[in-house]
Amino acid sequence: MNVIMPYVLPVLFALVIVALLPLLAGYIVLVERKVMADMQVRLGPMRVGPHGLLQPIADAVKLLLKEDIIPENADRLVFWGAPLISVTAAMLALAALPIGPFFQIADLNIGLLFILGVSSLGIFGIVLGGWASNSHYSLLGALRSAAQLVSYETSAGLAIVGALLLAGTLSTRGIVQAQSATGWWFIFVAPVGFFIYLVASIAETNRAPFDMPEAESELVAGYMTEYSGFRWALYFLAEYTNMIVVASIATTLFLGGWLRPFANTPLFNFLDYLPPLLMLGVAGYCFWRAPKQPVAVQKMFMVAVGLLCIALTLALAMPLAAPAGSLLASSKAGIHGAFWFLFKVAAYIYVFMWLRFTFPRYRFDQLMRLGWQFLVPLSIVNVMGMGLGLALHRQLNWPAAPALILGIVLTLAAGAYLLATGEKHEHPRVGEEEETSVDA
Amino acid sequence: MLDQGVFYFFAALAILSAILVVTRRNAVQSAIFLVTALLATAGIFLNLNAEFLFIVQVILYAGGIMVLFVFVIMLVNLDVALHQVQFNRQWFVALIVSAVLAAQVAAAIAVSRRTLYTVPAAPAESLEPNTERVAFYLFHNYMLPFEIASILLLVAMVGAVVMAKKRV
Buried b / exposed e across B123-145, counting CB within 10 Å, b at 16+? Predict the structure, then answer.
């Protein structure tokens, strides 16, 4: 019995995450379509369920029932296995993420490296899927994807190193605790690192404006052109899981993980009441809109959503109302921590969507130039600036603020220099094109 | 017991994939099995509580070098290569080299057989903070060799860029 016990809770957490993830991914797609519709002054999906709330379920059923086609000249085994590699790698990376101080599958000593290393294996799914399809569009998409991921992983990794210097540990839990101890989220201490990570993470998840691997105006659908039905859905799931993973890394590393804003200031303790009030507001809105739905089923569904929000309100409010010292009151850190973590992840993903619908797509050579000639040098300078600031602070006993600000200013100066000199190379004249690493 | 089972699983996986790497005619399939072999080796590292080595193996070999391998292989026209007759069969040389290697390993095991089993197992907690330990020895005891190695790598990198570019 004692042999099994330590594994029970992690396995339970893992089951919860794996079971909820497809649903979550489906609803992220719905939110993305709704946000897109809003930015383009449309309504978006409205037919299935009130305000399209059941659309993800309908889509999932459609994808499961769709015919599964394998091209005749495809490498069947690789074609079959490639989406699985992508999904497995993406889901495995979730294992080390601290969703609240208690809800974490495993707190590894190599936490952040584990997430980075395992999620970088997902690229094999894309590359092999593109190759096995035996189609030119797929192969080109896969090649672009490989080149893009390898290029931007470099700058993302270096951006993370900057923040890791501050935390002094790789354990995801330790990183959040370090931010709790200093009282400063690392985004305020290492803003350049956060910016680099934001750009690089968009490129790594193959999203617009860097969605070269699946640019539909050029490559039909890139590496997943030949995929349909459930296998296609697996690629999609992997893509959205990767979004959640990079958003969680950014949240843990730069945005204070499960910490409430101003967690160390008693003056801002009223922010504890924000989560239940927010949920109550959503519930009230649902009840108010319910009678206005056209069909009886939709009215019922709207009420059900409202009841779900009420339940969440109760879950969030109970630890606050319970007497201090009781079990419920001590569960506050876990429940509210999970709320803030997911809230920040959602905000980060919203920024992804916002950028997607605001910026036009880059050209492939522009993408490579941005990666290698701007982001990689900038991230190297960022690590050096961060290291300089910390060395001045820790070894020469400078006060923290001027030392770190000196590092940031030096980094920004280097960035400005790169921007200024990069302009000259921007348009190579005809006949003397620069040699890019890949001519895909 | 569990540790041994895990070790034999990963060891068998590594050897099996290594055999498949050299016997497959399709280069992409060979590359896939090479990835499997590398990951199985990483699994053995993890089984030995060498977490940092495990993740370095995954990031560098599986995630970095193999992606570039696959990348290059896909650019080669495989269909043509598959149907060409291969003249470079060197069974005899390969057999001799493998036999020498096997003899070396066997000799090493035979010599250290007695000392191998008398080495006391390290206490579990001393293995725990793996990354810190590697960093400490790398930047404390072996600072100079580490820096020399990194300069060597830098020179190699700059050299590759200079040779690849037509005009600098």
Answer: eeeeeebbbeeeeeeeeeeeeee
Examine the pLDDT at A440 and tell me if it is beyond 50: no
CA distance readout (Å), A60 to A171, A231, B2? 36, 12, 40
What pTM was computed for the model? 0.83
- What fold, for B2-128? Four Helix Bundle (Hemerythrin (Met), subunit A) (1.20.120)
pLDDT value of position A438: 46
Picking from A363, A371, A365, A364, the residue whose alpha carbon sits closest to that of residue A418 is A371
Grade residue A53 by pLDDT with cuts at 50, 70 and 90.
Answer: confident
With a cut of 70, say whether residue B37 has pLDDT above it.
yes
Enumerate the residues of chain B whose CB falls inside 8 A of the CB of residue A153: 63
Q: Does A317 touch chain B (CB under 8 A)?
A: no
Closest CA of chain B from A82, distance in Å:
11
Query: Which member of B32, B54, B63 has the closest CB to residue A121?
Result: B63
Q: Is the pLDDT of residue A437 over 50?
A: no
Interface test with A, best of B3, B68, B71 (most A CBs within 10 A): B71
- Eight-state DSSP code of residue A292: G
Express each pLDDT in A239-255 by its tens digit.
888 899 999 999 988 88
Domain ranges of chain B: 2-128, 130-168
Residue A221, phi then psi, degrees to nearest 5: -145, 20
Asked if A120 and B63 come within 8 Å (Cβ–Cβ), the reply is yes
Note which residues in 204-243 of chain A have CB less than 8 A from chain B. none
